[in-house]
Every structure is written in structure tokens, then in C-alpha cells.
Amino acid sequence: MRNSFRFVLTALLFALLNLPVLAIDWGGALSNYTRYKGVNSGDLKLDQLDDANIWFKVPFDKAGNIYFVAEGLYEFEYDDRSDDKTHYVDLSLAKFSYLNKISATDSILVNAGRFSFSDATGVIFNQAADGLFAKYQTTMIEANVYAAYTGLLNAGIVKFLNHGKDLFEYDSDKIYQRADEYVVGAAAVTFPNFVMNQTGTLQFFGSQKTDSVKFRRLYGTLALNGPVFMGLYYNLSGTYSYAKYEDDDAVYSYLARGRLDYYFPFMGAVLSGGVDMASGDDPKKHHDDKRGAFMGFTKINAYFSADDPQYSGLFKLYTKASAKVVDKVRVSGGVDWVSEIAHRMEYKGTAFSAGVDVQAFSDLLIGAEFKNYRDYDDAKNNKMQFGINVQLVF
């Protein structure tokens, strides 16, 4: 595997050195995120996150269809509750991109290197990895394939979901620790505006652990989105999953997502509402029943809570809204109503959020937020957070 990636990197470097280089563009950002979080207002402790990143882009043609872009990151976090200080460095982006416009409507896009990729749902796989992406696009159809390797990523930055005894041992004292090794792949076909401006996508995604042929996850997703009427849009997706974890029985599970967004004709206001539902593990099921808990690949919290809940055994109703109340000031807020799915559906708790972002200058953003989660059964899962974020772009 390492030799394969060395070959790919060598080939990319050779290609870059043999292309004419135009003007190099570059920039960066400095950010500070200061949070006070705890179970309640009397338990708040400081958690501070500082990061600095710098990027550069090298175009190889005047149209910008061929280019190389890279971004480096340094991150520092201090947790007052545990008195932990952690440092990370990361190459978050290193991508060579080639776009061939065959005609006014047809094109081929190829990306190679380290870059972000998201599956059709946005919550199964949504992260950077080292690999290749290719897309063929016409007015009638879009087809794309993706393949990548995760073992060169920084485990302190990107988190995966593992299972049972197969837990990755992360050392927080290391600035850069190689992540768990998976090969992931996806293939999708999209029909844009196939009927009444509606778009449909069929996608297959899979992951395979490199050190075990018995540890794999496969997902099939059907997604639809488009306008309903003026200002109102919908987004629906359904996923069926097969998973095999070492010597355990195969598990079949599902994830369903639906959302409505209404864009008001004033104040840049948006009102959204939706539902997420992911199968859980029923402890009372028959031993021949292969249905189980849904599990994605990238660790993505389904809602704000102390136990970092994932999209598994979950039923969530939510609403959120945002609006630009005055020039350069946007306010937002939302509510999540959450239930657990196991043997039966049981109400779990409610999460609230509110925030304000101020674009003080073109290169300076200041934000503040408040989040609060109250658990119906277990107060240990309660969580409260106040945060202030400052970002300077240069």
C-alpha cells in the first residue's frame, strides 16, 4: 500500500514539474474558539481551541482548469477540566485538479491527492482522505467514482467509527499520529433535473479494513432533491447498509433523512425543518434477526450532548432558522427533539442552540453561540456551552 502511494505521489510530482506555472495565489487564517462547557451553568470549564492555516494554489492554465492546491494546519487545544494541552499539525489539503471541458455542456473532472469527499447523505463519510475522484458530467447525467486510503491521515484531526474490540488506540501526546487504515470507495450516478427540476442520485459506498478481510461496511443510498414551489426546497435520502465485523454475524441496518428549506425573499432568512432516523440494536430480537444498529464511517455527532451521539438508534426531529437582521450581522437558532430506537422508541431529550455572527470587516469574523442539551433520563448526558469565535483571514 505504501509503495502504491509513493508511486502515485511521484507521478503527480513529475506531472506538476512538467506543466507551465502561472501566478501563485496564497492566503491563510488565524482562529480562536473559546468555549465554556459543562453539565450546567455551575459546572462550566474553559476549553480553548486555536488554529492557524496557510494555503497556496498553483494554476497551470489561464482558465483555471488545471491547478494544484495545498493547505497546512496547526491546532492547539487546552481543556481546563482535564488540564490537557494538545498540539496537532496536519496537511488538510493537497490536491491536483484537472478539468477537461469537452463541450459547452460536457466535461470530465479528475482530482488526485488529499481532499475532502462526502457521501450522498453527508453523515456516513464526510472527511478528507488520500485518493482519486473522477466525474463525467453532461446535462442529462453525472457519473463519478472515488477511491481513497485513510492510513496517512492525522488521527488527532479525523475520527472514524470502529466496532467492538477493534478500537483504534490514539495517543494524544503525538502531534501527528497515522490514522487507522481503511480503503474506501464510492460510485454514484446523478440525474440532474430529470423531471420538473428534480434531481435523483444513486450511490454505493464501501469501506474495507486493510488488516482484516472480515471488517467491511457497505452502503446503498437513493437521494432526491429539488424545488417544491417558490422558495421551498426538499432533500430526501434513504440508505440500506450491510456490515461485517470480524467473526460477528452480518448486520443489516438503515438510515433515512428528510429536510425542507424555505428561503424568504427578505433578510436572507432561511427556515428549515427535518427528520433523521437510524436503526438501533434491539436486545429482544430473535437470534436469527440480522437487523441491527446503523453505523457510519466518519465520527459525526447527530446532536449536541455529553455522550457524543452518532447517527445510530436515533429518531430526531429538528428545526432551525437564520436571518441577516442588519448589515453584516446574522443570527441563528435551532431545536432538536431526540428519541432512542432500540426495542421501542423512547424520548431521550431536547437540544437548543442560538448564535450570532458579525462580519466586522471583510477579513474579520466574530461569532458567539449558546448550546444546551437536557436529557430526559440521565443527567450525566446534559451539556451546556457558551462560545466565542474570532477568525482573521489574510
Helical segment tally? Answer: 1
What is the string of SSEs from the N terminus onward?
A: HEEEEEEEEEEEEEEEEEE
Characterize the largest beta sheet: strand count, sense, and whether it forms a barrel: 18 strands, antiparallel, barrel
Distance between the termini: 38 Å
Report the β-strand fraction as a percent range. Answer: over 45%
**Rounded Rg:** 22 Å
Helical residue percent? under 10%
Number of strand elements: 18
Pick out its properties.
globular, 394 residues, mainly beta, 60% strand
Describe this structure in words.
This protein is mainly beta and 394 residues long. The chain is 4% helix and 60% strand. It is built from 1 helix and 18 strands. It has an 18-stranded antiparallel β-barrel. It is globular. It starts with a helix and ends with a strand. 21% of the residues are buried. The mean pLDDT is 90.
Topology (elements, then pairings):
Layout: H1 2-17, E1 25-38, E2 45-59, E3 66-79, E4 84-101, E5 107-118, E6 126-137, E7 142-149, E8 182-195, E9 198-209, E10 215-229, E11 232-245, E12 251-263, E13 270-278, E14 314-326, E15 329-341, E16 345-361, E17 364-375, E18 383-393
Antiparallel strand pairs: 1-2, 1-18, 2-3, 3-4, 4-5, 5-6, 6-7, 7-8, 8-9, 9-10, 10-11, 11-12, 12-13, 13-14, 14-15, 15-16, 16-17, 17-18
Provide a quick synopsis of the model.
4% of the residues lie in helices and 60% in strands. It is built from 1 helix and 18 strands.
